[in-house]
Specification:
heterodimer, A: alpha/beta, Rossmann fold, 2 domains, six-stranded mixed sheet, three-stranded antiparallel sheet, 10 helices, about 25% strand, B: mainly alpha
Chain lengths: ~290, ~280
């Protein structure tokens, strides 16, 4: 069996003379969760929509669950789950009516009532979707995406508009899907979310993948050097070093006593990400 | 290869899924109040309004040797044609545009639902609502407005084929026009004026034989004129045929014009229909 759920090789998409996706390559292993990060307009959604089969590519090779999404049939679609960006209203239907209808499109759907419980909408099951809050509607979107027990799930900014509690619950739901072996391609602006859920992250900037790797290695050694922060003569100072304790000790020795507000932090994913996105000319060699 | 998915066929029959989808579409139809009024009840409402507004002047006698008929009887064929246009063209044109802009179509596109089943669902919704609408018009016309309906089978046979050909053409053109509006908000602004103008020039709200000939010719380029003409052939006295262009009902022309538009609609749907708006 193919160990890769998704293979993308030198993917290109142009609209006229505007290049939106400019030679993107990455793989997603079966059971893996890859988070696709990047500023607006970086080409994330276009890439994902090509993988979903909604758009045609201008060049390159794409394989999704062993098939070319451009030519794959409806059987292929039955193996995918797609949660698009916020989809607005859904007409005059209740949560249960909508889910029941969609479950009928698949041959082995999840039980609708179990699904409603899993996404935490038991009390809203008989309400019209238009009466739900933004976060609740998003959970309906997710429920529609997983009703067919997909092998590969696309999540496009799934928790936009969630309160912190709803977000935690949503993450727990995604972890259950991961435990069941679902492969996930997650697009998000929420770096905390990417760090929580993804095995690997890929950062896209201006139509290219600028870096890809496990959250803990992203950006290479340099980007992950710990930061020592302290105050000296009333001014905040910071320094990056591979040996933070040695540095902290030497500061204490120099000052005669340990500074009160010394702290040693690892750069958060957000710091690494902002460095990656902010650098106009990243070294080609480290980009994939 | 150790298969993760079983080889069991996933798709149930396209038709079976389509019938299930039709029930779902009907549920959505009856739940939306504005569709119920502006599409389903509108022809009945207009027929009642015209009968009350113009009926007080007495029956209509368009020419010597022609039997007088009530205002309601004169407008009934046009309102039946109008129902075909509203239930097919206006209903689907707006409905699908809104579904597209609200992301419902993209959701369908992400599932193994076949576009064929989706269209079977829409067709089912249109067929059921259009038939009920026509039945309601007949009941209302016969009981409240005392319009005498034809008793011979031949007339009803003509009605049947004009109705079927008309509603299929109207529905296909509705699906085709649904690609034009760029948002849910503009759906009504794009579709309704087209339907409205057609109803005015095609013999629904204005008596067709009183329109200037050039306007009759322009209306003849569009399908609603032919639906209305077919309905007049069924429900007006035979002597009224002289009021038509060339002085006859020209049912062959009705059949040909509607068939041509049906093919045009089919081609447009095949070329334009997308689950997702391109470049969005």
């Amino acid at each position: 069996m193919d160990t890769q759920a998704v293979r993308v090789e030198d993917l290109r998409k142009t609209y006229g003379d505007r290049t939106v996706v400019d030679g993107v390559s990455f793989d997603i292993a079966r059971g893996e969760t890859l988070a696709l990060l990047g500023p607006n307009g970086a080409g994330k959604s276009t890439t994902v929509e090509i993988l979903e089969g909604f758009r045609r590519r201008s060049g390159g090779r794409v394989e999704v669950l062993g098939a070319d999404p451009e030519t794959a049939g409806l059987d292929h679609r039955a193996r995918l789950g797609i949660v698009l960006q916020s989809t607005g209203r859904t007409g005059p239907l209740t949560v249960r009516e909508l889910l029941r209808q969609f479950s009928g499109f698949f041959s082995h759907p999840r039980d609708v009532d179990e699904l409603i419980a899993a996404v935490g909408l038991v009390d809203q099951a008989r309400l019209r979707v238009s009466k739900l809050s933004g976060g609740q509607r998003r959970r309906v979107d997710v429920a529609l995406g997983i009703v067919g027990r997909p092998e590969l799930l696309f999540l496009d900014e799934p928790t936009t508009g969630f309160d912190p509690h709803a977000r935690r619950e949503f993450w727990a739901l995604i972890r259950r899907l991961q435990a069941d072996g679902t492969t996930i391609l997650l697009t998000t602006h929420d770096l905390d979310e990417a760090a929580q859920l993804a095995d690997r992250v890929a950062v896209m900037v201006a139509g290219r993948v600028r870096a890809i790797g496990p959250v803990s290695d992203l950006g290479g050694e340099e980007a992950r050097l710990p930061i020592v922060r302290w105050s000296e003569a009333g001014r905040p100072r910071e320094e990056r070093t591979a040996r933070p304790f040695v540095l902290a000790e030497s500061i204490a020795r120099r000052l005669g006593c340990p500074p009160e507000d010394v702290e040693i932090v690892r750069p958060r994913l957000e710091d690494v990400y902002l460095r990656l996105v902010g650098e106009p000319a990243f070294v080609e060699g480290t980009a994939r | 290869m150790s298969a993760v998915t079983d080889a069991e066929p996933r798709t149930r029959g396209l038709l079976a899924v389509g019938v299930r989808q039709a029930r779902f579409e009907l549920l959505q139809y009856v739940r939306s109040g504005d569709t119920m009024f502006f599409t389903f009840l509108f022809p009945v409402f207009m027929l009642g309004l015209f009968a009350v507004a113009f009926g007080s002047a007495g029956d209509v006698e368009p020419g010597p040797g022609m039997p007088a008929i009530s205002v309601a009887a004169m407008f009934l064929p046009g309102m039946l044609a109008s129902g075909l246009l509203l239930s097919g063209f206006q209903n689907l044109g707006m409905d699908i545009a809104v579904e597209r802009s609200e992301g419902m179509l993209a959701r369908y596109g992400g599932t193994p639902l076949s576009p064929v089943s989706y269209f079977v669902g829409k067709a089912g919704q249109v067929a059921v609502t259009a038939a009920l609408q026509a039945a309601l018009l007949f009941v209302f016309a016969a009981t409240v407005l005392h319009v005498a309906l034809p008793a011979d089978a031949g007339a009803w046979l003509t009605f049947a084929w004009v109705f079927v050909l008309g509603i299929v053409t109207s529905a296909l053109l509705g699906i085709a026009v649904s690609s034009l509006p760029r948002s849910a908000k503009s759906a009504a602004a794009v579709v309704v004026p087209i339907a409205l103008v057609l109803q005015f020039v095609s013999g629904v709200y204005l008596t067709f034989w009183q329109l200037p000939e050039w306007l009759q010719n322009v209306a003849g380029l569009f399908p609603l004129k032919w639906m209305a003409q077919g309905m007049r052939a069924v429900f007006l006295p035979d002597q009224y045929a002289v009021l038509e262009q060339n002085g006859q009902w020209n049912l062959a022309g009705v059949a040909i014009a509607l068939a041509v538009w049906l093919v045009v609609g089919l081609v447009l749907v095949r070329v334009t229909f997308r689950w997702m708006r391109r470049g969005a």
